[in-house]
Amino acid sequence: MYSDQVMDHFMNPRNVGEIENPDGVGEVGNAKCGDIMKVFLKIENDIIVDVKFKTFGCGAAIATSSMSTEMIKGKSVDEALALTNKAVAEALGGLPPVKMHCSVLAEHAIKAAIEDYKKKHNK
Amino acid sequence: MEQRIYLDHAATTYTKPEVLEEMLPYFTRKYGNPSSVHSFGRETRKALDLARERVAKALNADPGEIFFTAGGTESDNWAIKGTALANQKKGNHIITTAIEHHAVFHTCNYLERNGFEVTYLPVDKYGMVDPEQVRNAINDKTVLISVMTANNEIGTIQPIKEIGAIAKEKGIAFHTDAVQAIGSIPIDVKEMNIDLLSLSAHKFYGPKGVGALYIRKGVKLQQFIHGGAQERNRRAGTENLPAIVGLGKAIELATQDIPGHSARLTALRDRLISGILSKVEYTRLNGHPTMRLPGNANFSFEFIEGEALLLTLDIQGIAGSSGSACTSGSLDPSHVLLAIGLPHEIAHGSLRLTLGDQNTEEEIDYVLEVIPKVVQRLREMSPLFNQQKGGQKHV
What we know:
The complex is a heterodimer. Chain A has one domain: Sufe protein. Chain: A, CATH 3.90.1010. Chain A is 45% helix and 22% strand. Chain A is built from five helices and three strands; from the N terminus they run αβββαααα. Chain A has a three-stranded antiparallel beta sheet. In chain A, a hairpin with a 4-residue loop joins strand 1 and strand 2. In chain A, 46% of the residues are buried. Chain B is an alpha/beta fold. In chain B, helix 5 links the parallel strand 3 and strand 4. Chain B is globular. Chains A and B meet through helix 1, strand 2, strand 3 and helix 2 of A and helix 11 and helix 16 of B.
């Protein structure tokens, strides 16, 4: 049911972990619903120089966490804000319809982390 | 993948070669319609009668009380709707439990939407129904009590004999979904006071798409599938003869040595359970420690999600199942796990491993090697685990 890209990002997730003293942190979802994603950002001159994540969730949640963090690494904050869940799902070769909400989780977690960064840095 | 280990026998089993062998002539050579008068019909009629006798013998019933269906789901639908409709003058109340299979649960939901009242009895933390609660739920409108023999997810075996005795005393029809129990625990419909019993061949090494409903002589039940006069005018449709022959052979094999089969599986199951509980922290066994199906193990691993666990195990060659929402296509985890009191987040991290007659100790030991690593890997990715590390155990 999952594409090869999803399985690759699930089995070999990129950017798993935490960043010490991050410039922005975002956490969305809740354990009751079965998925939580936490994103850590390191930002220099409005460029995302490093990103890490921790995710509690299904295969699709972990794969979209991995892919979305790959897609914003090295990008500007504005570019990262423009990332859509659709783009993440497409980059993964598509997701089963019942799993599309997992890609929304990743988009929202990144946006929350950037908001946190902006708040901390008065932007 | 070097080896594949099948630990999902509660979902379905393979068909035993000796079962298939008995079925095969009924596809190509013995294809007559059992309702026909000619010799082609007579030879299949004989096979149909033999299958019915074999099922009856396995349950200590009479052959005239066995009716073939398309599987456990049809049997459950027929038993419940058939009893409800046949007793409308008497009452409209049904008693069942919070942990029934969807074939019972959703059938009761359907009747509720159509004017019936249903009591869904709670279970204790092991998934056990209290017979006294059954007694207390009975009112003068109660027409049916339906309690499964053993649970498909957590394996808990219910006090069927006690519940049957209460139903008999009160003169209320008693149905049990025994789909998971056949071949694992001895069933005697007379001794257990069962009026209606559902079973399905593919859970005990028979073919898919065939089951049976035991209907005690004299129990009022409306017809469910209307049409021809098959099954003594009670279940229409030309008999699925190859499958029925397979069901007959499979139930004969499954019930010829229940204690031996059960002892072998219980030893493997307990090796699996004690291994997992000792090797993986923040883990609980779901279901009753001893009153459980010999082949059933069900765990909850905290801080991780079941589907992710299944996918990883599958890559390692291990096939299991989970009560996580992500495997069911709904947003809620299994109603059974919630009914035994698990919080949502713990129910999401469940893993069911169900053993069968070909599993070996070597396979269990391989599983015990793989699971701790897989759980650890997913926990290291989980934001919940970090927060928990060094904290209090809350199971």
